[in-house]
Design a protein that fits this description.
The chain is α/β, with parallel strands linked by helices. The protein has two domains: 2-129; 142-290, Rossmann fold (3-Layer(aba) Sandwich). The chain has helices at residues 10-27, 60-66, 72-80, 128-134, 143-153, 166-169, 171-176, 182-193, 208-214, 232-241, 251-258, and strands at 2-5, 31-34, 93-95, 112-115, 157-162, 200-205, 221-223, 244-246, 267-269, 289-290. Strands 7-6-5-8-9-10 form a six-stranded parallel β-sheet, sandwiched between helices.
Length: 291
């Protein structure tokens, strides 16, 4: 079996599941999800229950068989330091070595436990149709959201995501991620408006009040959720219904853009994804713009 460790918020969980699902289909091994980390996570919880995924949870016995507890570093050392004696793709415990795409992951053919973020579509681009289907929310959209989605599909709609939350309130998150400036968004809006005739911007944010007060656009705009909150999966689905995207340095809006099936979509992503020095060469698909 393939066990994928899920951690972080919805965007991270989608990346982790996608990498595990692709590996499962290539290897012919069943996929199981390790959600045990959320028992001690006061800020995040398992969010994939709202999607039509292959949802099979790994038992404690299955997890311990592939990922012996209390020995993660020793397992990682055996895998990477001594891999001349034990080929990478035959090891049972696989921890992400670095942020860029690692082609060795595609060689895995034996039961394995994967622990990482796997933030590159190169891990799963060969199963795009499967993921688009499975990442469609199973709850029926509320009537107001369906009406909003219809407006998005029938206009020159652009989703714009402003990520704040712990990016501005948590010093460590701010040090690693940083938040994008209003000037960045203004430049992205002007670039998009130069390429899309008559754009209408649909603004998403985890601090929609701040966005409405501070983002002054010279184009028609709708602040989504300003009068009532959506669940995260509902906002993500609505983002994907827009014809184009301006995304934040956030895995959440990355998926909103990736799940947009408009073949002519324009996606604008930040050139610098992290405030810290992290190599993101494989994070942004080749057809997207970076500024």
């Amino acid at each position: 079996m393939i066990i994928i460790k899920l951690k972080g918020g919805l965007g991270n969980q989608l990346f982790q599941y996608a990498a595990g699902r692709a590996l499962s289909l290539r290897s012919g091994l069943p996929l199981k999800l390790d959600v045990s980390g959320y028992q001690s996570d006061a800020l995040r919880n398992y969010r994939l229950r709202f999607y039509g995924i292959v949802e099979d949870f790994a038992t404690e016995t299955e997890i311990n068989r592939l990922n012996p507890p209390k020995h993660e570093f020793l397992a990682w050392s055996r895998l990477h330091i001594g891999k001349r004696f034990k080929p990478f793709h035959r090891a049972s415990y696989i921890r992400e070595r670095w942020f860029p795409f690692d082609p060795e992951i595609l060689k895995i053919s034996q039961p394995a436990y994967l622990n990482g973020y796997w933030q590159s579509e190169r891990y799963f681009s060969d199963i795009t149709d499967v993921l688009v289907r499975e990442f469609t929310p199973t709850p029926v959209p509320r009537a107001d959201n369906e009406a909003l989605a219809q407006r998005m599909r029938s206009s020159a709609s652009v989703s714009l995501h402003i990520r704040r939350g712990d990016y501005v309130s948590n010093p460590e998150a701010q040090r690693v991620h940083g938040s994008l400036s209003l000037d960045h968004y203004r430049r992205a809006v002007d670039l998009m408006a130069g390429r899309v005739a008559g754009p209408h911007f649909f603004i998403f944010s985890d601090d929609i009040g701040w966005a409405a007060e501070n983002l002054d656009l010279a184009y028609p705009a709708t602040f989504v959720g300003a009068t009532g909150g959506n669940a995260d999966y509902e906002d993500l689905w609505l983002m994907s219904q827009c014809r184009h995207q301006i995304i934040a340095n956030s895995s959440f809006s990355w998926w909103g853009a990736w799940l947009n099936r408009n073949p002519d979509k324009i996606v604008i992503a930040p050139q610098r994804w992290f405030a810290a020095s992290i190599d993101t060469r494989d994070l942004i698909p080749s057809g997207w713009l970076r500024i």
